[in-house]
Write a structure and sequence with these properties.
By secondary structure, the protein is of the alpha+beta class. 24% of the residues lie in helices and 41% in strands. It comes from Pedobacter mendelii.
Length: 141
């Protein structure tokens, strides 16, 4: 499936928590392990994060039954604390995450280049499910 010249995909959510907590839960590997997966059948057994321009991150997403796993990682190209994170994935795709603070809530908008294997709607749904897990985890912890 060729997806050349496909526009970036954007997803978003508003988390009912101050931006400082949202930022901490988004970037701390202790928290990443609790939300960075799309469904309850998956988990994150390993996460590393060096949040700075030029820093690297790596998250291992795995099926709980051991049937499959993959590493999701890249290099940060821009970090503006409590506002913006940009990175390039290992395959060259770009991702931009914007944090917008508003009193006791934080709007998170994530824009990413699609990959060329899975349908656009599947990619959007998967990333949105992970963002939903982030919202649920952050609001209940």
């Amino acid at each position: 499936m060729a997806l050349e010249n496909t526009a970036p995909i954007t997803i978003e959510t508003t988390v009912n928590t101050p931006v400082e907590k949202a930022w901490e839960f988004w970037n701390n590997p202790v928290h990443i392990k609790n939300w960075a997966f799309a469904s309850p059948e998956w988990h994150v057994p390993h996460a590393e994060n060096d949040l700075r321009k030029g820093g690297k991150f790596s998250t291992t997403m795995a099926a709980k039954d051991g049937s499959m796993s993959f590493d999701f990682g890249g290099i940060y190209t821009s970090v503006d604390m409590y506002k913006l994170i940009e990175y390039v994935l290992g395959d060259g795709r770009k991702v931009k995450i914007v944090f917008e603070a508003d009193a006791d809530s934080t709007k998170i908008t994530e824009t990413f280049d699609p990959e060329s294997v899975n349908p656009i709607e599947m990619q959007k749904g998967g990333w949105q499910a992970i963002l939903h897990n982030f919202k649920k985890y952050t609001e209940t912890n």
